[in-house]
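Reply to dn_fold:

You asked what the input looked like. This is it:
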Amino acid sequence: MASLVLIPVGLVSTVLAWRLSRDGRLASRYRVVWQMLAAGLLLAAVGDVWSIGLATSRGRDLAITAADAPYLLSYLVIIAATLCLIEGRPSRGEVVTLTLDASMVAVGGGLVIWHTVIVPAYRAVPADALSRLVSLAYPVGDLLLLTGLAVVLLRCQDDARRRVLLLLAGSLGAMLFGNLLWIYEYTERGWLVESARDVCFLTHYALFIASVEVERRQLGREAEDVRTPLVPMALLPYAAVIGGYALLLSVAWRGADEHTFQLTLGALILTMLVTARQIVALRENVALQRERVVMSGEARFRSLVQHASDVVSIVDVHGVASFVSPSATATLGYTPETIVGTSILALLHPDDAVDAGRRLEDVVSTGRSATGRWRMQRKDGTWIQTDSICTNLMSDENVRGLVLTTRDISERCALEAQLLHQAFHDPLTGLANRALFLDRVRHALARRQHGSDGLGILFIDLDQFKTVNDSLGHQVGDLLLRGVADRLASGLRCFDTIARLGGDEFAVLIDDAEGDDGVMVIADRVGQALRDPFLLEGREVVTLASIGVALVHADQSAEDLLRNADLAMYLAKNRGGGQTALFEPEMHAAMLNRLELQADLRRALEREEFSLVYQPVHALETQALVGVEALLRWAHPTRGSVPPGVFIPIAEQTGLIVPIGKWVIEQACRDAREWRNQLGEIAPQSVAVNISGRQIPEPALFDDIQAALARAELPPSALVLELTESILLTHTDQTLSVMHRLKDIGVGLALDDFGTGYSSLSYLQRLPIDVLKIDRAFVERLETDASASALTRAIVGLGKTLSLRTVAEGVENRTQADLLQHLGCDHGQGFLYGMPMPTRELQRYARRVRKFVAA
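and this is what came back:
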């Protein structure tokens, strides 16, 4: 019955151990240990179930069965878990001592197990080799487990951890003794020990569950003083020796038997091991005496630490200091007594504290030293740059902590920055230039060949910077650039590289951040910092920044990384500006497509791929054809018809709109001359051509228009140039000058999309405008929105007050045309009158309109 109870108890122990291994607060190596222990217990439970079934069907004997497989596997797993519990890497002297201690345990315990278990089991099992080999594997596994437990306890230095280890050792020891009784039970000595065996196994599970509970309670709790066990761990090997000698005395008391020689040989080996151990202990005592001799040297070293300029402190894994050298007063302004008992991390900048805490944990888990460069706050509130080296001396009885050596490197950082500034700097802001920035990126990539988390580039472009330059002057624009540079420098770490690439473009190299998410956090913080207004020459200037972020991936050059960040910045700008965008691989494909389109666009004029279509403009009252608007179309040889919304922005950004716009004006003038020759008086009176903002600053614009009119022998009044309100606001003085010169020769001027921009009435009076074009957004809401009707009436009234013609765009049906005519609008254009059409179709359309109007 007791054997049946062991199975559910073992399963409960397995579940508890597995749940504990899933706790994230537990160190990774201990999670693995508990997982392996849970696996071992589960295998043992499977063996129990299997063996009970076999015993029911076959009776009891020591012949091998299928149940032996999970039992032996559980031995291997539990022994491996025991080995994982061994702490730290011993020194050369500790290896000798530990080897002797382990050998004493193995030989002493082996003598007892050999005489009491192995020999009887060997006689009891069937004579075949496999049965004897399997039966002998159990006591051998017990011996290995016994030796492993001894090594674990001997290597344990942490009193808090020792409490759990003692419970685990007691649990595994009870299991070991139960296994020995299990074998003993099947020898010729009979069945009298079955109850004792079950008690051992129940004790094993009880102590194991207790160890799980103690481990769980200690999670998240700071280290506390735990009373050292009454029996020092160093005496464990001698206990095994005593057991071996006691066995020899017992056999001698009963009289010699056939195994006396083997036992005597084992006792001799034990004696040799004890002698060697005592020799090692003697040498350790001699070394201790030598340490006492050099105590004066240690006093000298202590004096050096007391007077060193570096701050030497001893902290635990949480950064709480137990010792701080007196140099803290000169470096940080705090007395050592003030810092002791508090966390060093509290003195670090909040952005650096997380990184410092992570590095302390790495030093504890790996045992290797680590360095860090962090900002620390002095008592007077100022920040200094520090270089710190952390060394794990928790196993050193004289230290028992992490030694943190901190040096103030503020002056060194300033000197490095000064030298770098003199060699490669932007003359306006003092930031790194493009060459230095790319060099820094290359070095960062070379250092991070085997891992690139926490490395990225920010590409920053100021939104509407040109407006600030044009409206407030270049002096204010320069002040704004300096202000942005100062704000970036103050918000980032000294080892982050900030550069001005040119114009209003900045770049930042983020290195050693908290993973890729850390780079994005810094990017968002930079964008938020630039939202605050700048006070320049007594006025507040607000500017937003579009930020592109590129993270490092495999096989990337510095140029690739900067290009990717640039692409992401353009995505942020296209989304409306003032945003942060992360580069995605598909952006590169879009860029290649854009470059191909740009290259094709450069050759489109040479290949005569452009054409013009014309949308008619009618008088609302008479329905007569009074004019047309020229619209550009591109027939790509492989892509087909490319929408204007795709290629016009590219032409604007690359400047190709200037030669394309010149061609449009010339072609529209030639077509207008052909209509007049073919149609006579029924030809459209004027042709309207849209002018880009990139064309206005061109000095040759006026001359090109004059030349096009002259070559086509077209009167200037037949040409109308359409400009948007944004163009007028961007190029105020220059635009006014060009407009007046064109007006003087008779060219008509139209203000396109009126009502959607920001022109004031006083500014509108200064413009030599002939036509106001009402945006289609007002026209399409005339039938349903009373406010749209009121605004349209106001625009028409404004046009009449200023003696301007009004043209409504996007007239789709007769109801809209009637409403516009009722409001007093002069002309209309839209699908009601006709789709944009080529020049020959326009001639046929003009003849049809003439017949319709005449009828």
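Confidence is low (pLDDT under 50) at residues 56-60, 188-192, 222-231.
Hope that clears it up.
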